[in-house]
């Protein structure tokens, strides 16, 4: 267990160092909130993937794979389709809005009132969501490492807050990249060892006809097979639509606005798609193998929800000595990437969309200096980090976690209804700006009624029932609002046309952003981080293992070091091209010339 402590400590220390290394990349709000729109496709693409998963992937979702086999994949099929649409059209569209924050895009489409509603709602719900993730991760780490919960929670909260404060979006994307490298290396190994244990792919699929699991392991199950109608055809359709809704709306703009231009955004989407396809198999084969081979042991483990420990159980059963710490680091990676992305997004919205409106309301129209904006971002990150840690502490110290229940209620009543207008607002061009609130209100009707009905008649609405009626009411309201589009003022009609025109106009990176040493420095910083990480994995060879275990360790290290080598080669190519262009006569006069740091005006 000492080896696991050392491995995890070194990994967390590396994240702190990365935050400090990227601090110099931040000079203004755009840098802090979206990396100055200079992120490369491989950096943004890995960050997109990592922000889409959490430790729940290896606990709750692994539990579903353990219990029902392939039924869970409907969620990931929706993710894959969403990533494909992002790569084909959404990535370029949303990058070409020239937005600095997601709420900028919402304001441009729906107006200031919706912008402020989204900004304040996110500021309230965001920290609670992050706190739940922090609590869940801390609980997992505390149980696995057999150390007190509260200290783990505080340490993780401090680390995430520190590197998010010092490095902003750059640190978030960089740590996501390194965390993706670590996570995929170790989870690929766990998947390989699981298939090896079960006898290969052929034997793996033969277990699907085993009498012990054959009734459970249907892609679509009969009603009554699982509690609350889970994994039925109705569940699959509604959950697919719910998941897809969150993947193809205005609210995902934050995924792509950090890229250089529309082409880079498209490449980032394709990388996210490939990684999600690989992950969908790699992450959920092990819990199914655990059901085939270790079902009795897992059920007899004494854990309150044995199926949720299925991934950890088989990983600890099969991994070489010393690699469990890497597994825990992978779990940390999955959750911390979601936390830091959410934290950075909320800070950007506060500094860009809330504070300027408040200053305008108070009669202060003069824009803030870039250094002041950057200082606000850092202070806000620390404050939000403290709030998140406090909420997580409440979850850990209360027997009945009222805040957790409150969050679920608020999310189900408001979250989905707020999201549906963001979906139709992107795809229905002639939808009026004023339509947001009627559609939102219509979506609220079944959401609220589900709770009233539950209280009055003691009935329980399933997730799929509530979501189905929300989607139906929202669709009808959208149709009605579209019919009354002629009621929209000419000014609003022109603003909507301008929004779509801008969204379809390619970004001219050279003129709008301009080249900078940051374009190649990001390669070298991450190459160094990958070399350090791969080298540290080699130290696990000092732990007693059989020769085959040492080969597995070498394989994990080699994969990380190879990525570092590719980054180093890529960095030298970009720097060489940058130097050539800088020294050419036609570019000498304009190279490094300052560009507008705010191409997306606030008015």
Description:
- With 603 residues, the chain is mostly helical.
- It has three domains: 1-395, Sodium/glucose cotransporter (Up-down Bundle); 403-513, no CATH class; 515-588.
- Helices cover 74% and strands 0% of the residues.
- The protein has 24 helices and no strands.
- Helix 1 runs parallel beside helix 15 (324-361) and helix 7 packs antiparallel against helix 15 (324-361).
- It is globular, with a radius of gyration of 24 Å.
- It starts with a helix and ends in a 15-residue tail after the last helix.
- The model is unreliable at 588-603 (pLDDT under 50).
Structural key phrases:
603 residues; mainly alpha; Sodium/glucose cotransporter; 3 domains; 24 helices; 74% helix; globular; disordered C terminus
What's the gist of this structure?
By secondary structure, the chain is an all-alpha fold.
Summarize the helices and strands and which ones pair or pack.
Elements: H1 2-21, H2 29-34, H3 41-50, H4 60-68, H5 73-95, H6 102-110, H7 112-145, H8 149-198, H9 201-206, H10 233-245, H11 253-256, H12 262-282, H13 285-299, H14 310-318, H15 324-361, H16 370-397, H17 402-427, H18 436-457, H19 463-483, H20 490-503, H21 509-512, H22 518-538, H23 547-583, H24 585-588
Helix pairs in contact: 1-8, 1-15, 1-22, 3-8, 3-12, 4-13, 5-10, 5-12, 6-7, 7-8, 7-15, 7-16, 7-17, 8-13, 8-15, 8-16, 8-22, 8-23, 10-19, 13-14, 15-16, 17-18, 17-19, 18-19, 22-23
């Amino acid at each position: 267990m000492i080896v696991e402590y050392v491995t995890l400590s070194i990994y967390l220390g590396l994240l702190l160092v990365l935050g400090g290394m990227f601090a110099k990349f931040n000079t203004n709000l755009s840098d802090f909130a979206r990396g100055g729109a200079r992120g490369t496709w491989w950096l943004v693409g890995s960050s997109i993937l990592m922000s889409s998963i959490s430790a729940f992937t290896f606990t709750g979702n692994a539990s579903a794979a353990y219990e029902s086999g392939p039924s869970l994949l409907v969620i990931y099929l929706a993710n894959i389709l969403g990533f494909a649409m992002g790569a084909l059209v959404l990535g370029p569209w949303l990058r070409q809005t020239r937005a600095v924050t997601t709420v900028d895009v919402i304001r441009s489409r729906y107006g200031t009132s919706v912008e402020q509603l989204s900004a304040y709602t996110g500021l309230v719900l965001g920290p609670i969501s992050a706190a739940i993730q922090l609590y869940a991760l801390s609980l997992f780490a505390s149980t696995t490492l057999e150390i007190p919960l509260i200290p783990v929670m505080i340490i993780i909260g401090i680390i995430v807050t520190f590197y998010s404060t010092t490095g902003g979006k750059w640190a978030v994307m960089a740590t996501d990249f390194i965390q993706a490298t670590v996570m995929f290396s170790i989870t690929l190994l766990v998947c390989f060892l699981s298939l090896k244990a079960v006898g290969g792919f052929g034997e793996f699929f033969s277990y699907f006809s085993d009498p012990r699991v054959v009734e459970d392991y249907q892609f679509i199950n009969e009603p009554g097979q699982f509690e609350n109608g889970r994994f039925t055809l109705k569940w699959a359709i509604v959950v697919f639509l719910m998941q897809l809704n969150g993947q193809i709306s205005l609210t995902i703009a934050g995924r792509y606005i950090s890229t250089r231009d529309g082409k880079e955004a498209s490449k980032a989407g394709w990388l996210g798609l490939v990684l999600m396809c690989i992950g969908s198999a790699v992450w959920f084969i092990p819990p199914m193998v655990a059901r085939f081979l270790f079902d009795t042991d897992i059920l007899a483990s004494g854990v309150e929800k044995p199926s949720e420990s299925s991934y950890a159980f088989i990983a600890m059963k099969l991994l070489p000595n010393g690699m469990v710490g890497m597994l825990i680091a992978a779990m940390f990676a999955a959750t911390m990437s979601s936390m830091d992305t959410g934290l950075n997004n909320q800070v950007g919205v506060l500094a860009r969309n809330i504070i300027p409106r408040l200053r305008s309301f108070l009669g202060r129209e003069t824009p803030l200096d870039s250094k002041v904006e950057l200082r606000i971002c850092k202070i806000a990150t620390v404050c939000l980090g403290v709030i998140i840690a406090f909420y997580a502490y409440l979850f850990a110290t209360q027997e009945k976690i009222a805040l957790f229940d409150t969050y679920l209620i608020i999310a189900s009543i408001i979250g989905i209804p707020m999201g549906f207008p963001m979906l139709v607002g992107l795809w229905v061009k002639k939808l009026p700006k004023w339509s947001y609130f009627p559609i939102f209100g219509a979506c609220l009707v079944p959401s609220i009624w589900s709770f009233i009905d539950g209280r009055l008649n003691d009935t329980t609405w399933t997730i799929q029932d509530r979501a189905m009626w929300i989607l139906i009411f929202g669709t009808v309201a959208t149709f009605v609002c579209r019919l009354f589009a002629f009621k929209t003022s000419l000014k609003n009609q022109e603003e909507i046309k301008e929004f779509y025109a801008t969204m379809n106009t390619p970004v001219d990176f050279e003129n709008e952003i301009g080249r900078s040493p940051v374009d190649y420095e990001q390669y070298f910083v991450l190459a160094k981080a990958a070399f350090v990480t791969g080298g540290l994995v080699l130290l696990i060879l000092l732990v007693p293992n059989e020769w085959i275990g040492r080969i597995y360790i070498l394989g994990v290290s080699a994969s990380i070091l190879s990525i570092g080598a590719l980054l180093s080669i890529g960095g030298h190519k970009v720097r060489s091209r940058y130097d050539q262009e800088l020294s050419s006569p036609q570019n000498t006069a304009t190279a490094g010339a300052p560009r507008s740091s705010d191409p997306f005006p606030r008015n």
